[in-house]
């Protein structure tokens, strides 16, 4: 059997000290997470972040920085994820856009409100990457840009 991590993207979107999260159904539970999802064929990491954010929240965003790239093995299913997290600024909201079927709602929460929901986070990375972002961890997007 060949081992292969799942390539996923997450987006940190901050507005007025609050972070855009999705409240969603995942693995039989209701959990909070950044807008996130899997990389699709012929898509750059940045394109995936923009697409997933729009599909899950209805927000058009503009990626500005890379926060980090982490490996995470989910205890619930044993799958290893290679997760890239980018920062994006919110541009406009499309409230009539239908969201992905597993999304219950989108919410804007402060860092402390997210920490209070730690047991309801999809993974510990949800808060960890926000803390990395708040600590000033940012890298140029060119690090993950495709060759042209």
Number of domains: 1
- Portion of residues in beta strands equals 35-45%
CATH fold group: Nucleoside Triphosphate Pyrophosphohydrolase
Global mean pLDDT: 93
How many angstroms separate the termini?
Answer: 34 Å
Number of helices: 3
Shape descriptor reads: globular
CATH domain class name: Alpha Beta
What is the CATH architecture descriptor? Alpha-Beta Complex
Q: Which superfamily, in CATH terms, is the homologous superfamily?
A: Nucleoside Triphosphate Pyrophosphohydrolase
Strand tally is: 7
* Coarse structural class: alpha+beta
SSE series: EEEEHEEEHH
| Helical proportion, percent range | 10-25%
Would you mind describing this structure in some detail?
A hairpin with a 6-residue loop joins strand 5 and strand 6. It contains 3 helices and 7 strands, in the order E-E-E-E-H-E-E-E-H-H. The model has no long low-confidence stretch (mean pLDDT 93). Strands 1, 2, 3, 4, 5, 6 and 7 form a 7-stranded mixed beta sheet that branches. By secondary structure, the chain is an alpha+beta fold. It has a single domain, classed as Nucleoside Triphosphate Pyrophosphohydrolase (Alpha-Beta Complex). The longest helix is centred in the middle third of the chain and has 13 residues.
């Amino acid at each position: 059997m060949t081992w292969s991590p799942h390539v996923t993207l997450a987006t940190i979107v901050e507005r007025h000290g609050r972070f855009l999260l999705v409240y969603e159904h995942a693995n039989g539970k209701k959990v909070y997470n950044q807008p996130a999802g899997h990389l699709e064929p012929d898509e750059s990491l940045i394109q995936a972040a923009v697409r997933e954010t729009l599909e899950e929240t209805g927000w058009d965003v503009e990626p500005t920085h890379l926060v980090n790239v982490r490996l995470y093995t989910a205890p619930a299913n044993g799958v290893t994820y290679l997760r890239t997290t980018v920062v994006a600024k919110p541009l406009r909201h499309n409230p009539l856009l239908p969201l992905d079927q597993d999304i219950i709602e989108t919410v804007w929460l402060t860092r402390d409100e997210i920490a209070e929901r730690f047991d309801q986070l999809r993974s510990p990375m949800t808060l960890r990457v926000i803390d990395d972002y708040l600590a000033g961890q940012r890298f140029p997007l060119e690090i993950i840009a495709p060759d042209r």
